[in-house]
Write a structure and sequence with these properties.
169 residues, 4-stranded antiparallel sheet, alpha+beta
Length: 169
């Protein structure tokens, strides 16, 4: 996890400008250690002499800037402020995402049961359990869900969806 500190006295648009100024038309070796580490996390197989291009994207996508090295692009959302930001989407689009990424049907069903915790897969059950109550009675099913979902391929897709691009592409 890269933690880049932004100037708290400027707005988000100014942060985007500052980050682009720090990265655009710079070689990897010219970056300060914080930005170099950030770039190395975003791109694989780079070297000191790769030229970085960074532009602000004014479109209405989730990302704010586009960082490019050797025709490879990374779309990055810049956040500023004192409040945390979270990814939010409806359960049906997330389930579609899981199915699209080849999560097994029985795991998707168990995930829905976990999500609703009322004995149903759609929220129509009578008694909804707390997370702690559900966990106490269904730990093996939760372990099965975690085992299926916590694989490198899916985690990269999740990061791309939740952090970099958003659920509308």
């Amino acid at each position: 996890m890269i933690n880049i500190k932004f100037n708290k006295n400027i707005n988000g648009f100014q942060n985007e400008l500052e980050i682009c100024d720090e990265l655009n038309n710079k070689y990897v070796y010219e970056l300060n250690p914080m930005y170099r580490s950030f770039i190395e996390d975003l791109f694989s197989n780079i070297n000191d002499y790769n030229l970085i291009n960074c532009v602000i994207d004014d479109s209405s996508k989730k990302h704010d800037i586009i960082i490019s090295i050797e025709n490879e692009n990374r779309y990055v959302s810049i956040k500023k402020g004192i409040k945390n930001s979270i990814h939010v989407e409806g359960i049906s689009s997330f389930i579609h995402f899981l199915i699209q990424n080849h999560v097994k049907k029985d795991v998707v069903i168990e995930y829905l049961k976990y999500h609703y915790a009322d004995g149903s897969t759609n929220g129509t059950g009578i008694n909804r359990l707390s997370a702690e109550e559900y966990k106490k009675n269904n730990q093996e099913k939760i372990d099965m869900i975690n085992l299926e979902i916590n694989n490198e391929y899916l985690l990269m897709k999740v990061i791309e969806r939740f952090v970099l691009k958003g659920n509308i592409t």
